[in-house]
Amino acid sequence: MTSITRGSILQRGGEDKGATPAWTMTSVGEWLRSPVAPYYLVLVSTAMLTGLGLVMVLSASSVGSYTTSGSSYTVFLDQLMYAAIGVTLAVVGSRLPLRWWKRLAWPAVFLALLLQAAVFTPLGLDSYQGNRNWLSIGGRTLQPSEFGKIALVVFGAAVLATKRRVIHKVWQASIPLIFPVGIVLLGLVLQGNDLGTGMILVAILGGLLWAAGLPARWFVGVGAVAALGVAFLAAGSANRMQRIQVWLGNICDSPQVDGCYQKVHAEYALADGGWWGLGLGESREKWGILPEPHNDFILAIIGEELGLPGSLSVLLLFAVLAYACFRIVSQAEDMFTRLAASGLMVWFLAQAMINIGSVIGMLPIIGVPLPLVSSGGSALVAALVGVGLLLALARSLPGAREALGGRGSTARRTFASVPAPAPARTPAGSTGRKPAAKTARTPAAARKRVR
User: Fold this and answer.
1) Residue pair 365/356 in contact by the 8 Å Cβ criterion
2) How far apart, in whole angstroms, are the C-alpha atoms of residue 88 and residue 387?
3) How many CB atoms lie within 10 A of CB 405?
4) Domain annotation covers residue 25
5) CB atoms within 10 A of CB 251
6) Are residues 273 and 279 in contact, defined by beta-carbon separation less than 8 angstroms?
7) Strand 132-137 to 124-126 pairing
8) Count of CB atoms within 10 A of residue 243's CB?
9) How confident is the model at residue 224 (pLDDT cuts 50, 70, 90)?
10) From CA 407, how far away is CA 411, in angstroms rounded?
11) Is the residue at 26 inside a domain?
12) Residue 437 lies in a domain
């Protein structure tokens, strides 16, 4: 066996006693800078978020599902079905050439507007607090505004990519993205009293225009108008004003105070979880106490059952997804790729921040699901379609398609661009030559020697 000494370990740049060699950290850094890194970062982070979401939906909905349907698995099986549909669409979308995504821009946004307008027909359904943002089709419910998000991202990226030479002219950038498409879609959503989704749509529009290079001075005016609009809509609703008062008024000394029940019990769930959690399936608040435990407030159940590590894992996975989106934006040579990745990043992160902020009390309760994690078929399918587009964008990066399309194992393709570790230094006084290998004798040479 080869003898390994302390000197040889130090010559490789590492340390003894189990320390990680320096070349290993260098290799990880090189891989993160490789063209295939964004693809696998998106794939792994979204797969883990979706998987965690399925597990926690089963845990958080089991009690309520049994109460309403007699089975603890009703909500989970529905979520599993929508996850299968979404994953199938994501796989198809990831393999779809970007030129086809661009061609789908106008049909997608037209269909999104049509479905959103249909909620005001007899097909529409009123949800909690009188919000009208659902459709009933074939015994299933559909929330068109979720698909409006992905349609707006694709449409906005396709339109702005063709106007990159005149993007400094605000009217050129606004038509038709803001006028009429954005305004009509936003108006239909707000007419259904869905302020949370309206805020996400405004964030997507702002992210697309910012990434397209619209002069920064225009965002001051647009931001002021958006803030005034949100304030006006909040002031016109007693329910929204109560939520703001609960958030700012510091009046929730107990759950019995009007409007404080959900906020206080979400805090109870996080407090009961402590550092390490009560254990998977051991939540107390899901027993008919915390409203919407498997939907908007699923993070509270994650914190209660999985503790601080579970909550931080969710934050870390969204941070990885954000980093992957940023890498796609920074490495893209195509304007459509850059804009679409920006829109998707703003969509996922803005919605996650609003949801998490509502659960932990840093924002008023707005009522948007946690992307890829919360229960809800429309939200999950739409988010997974967005993931499929994000994977297609990552595959289009320079050098990524060649690395991903090469033969060999997945690991070999993943680390194709990682350099090999540097060879060990030759000890002083050595010639550096390798000992000559023994030459095998051929049968002819052996016969000649016998003679």
Assistant:
1) no
2) 11
3) 9
4) no
5) 13
6) no
7) antiparallel
8) 21
9) confident
10) 11
11) no
12) no
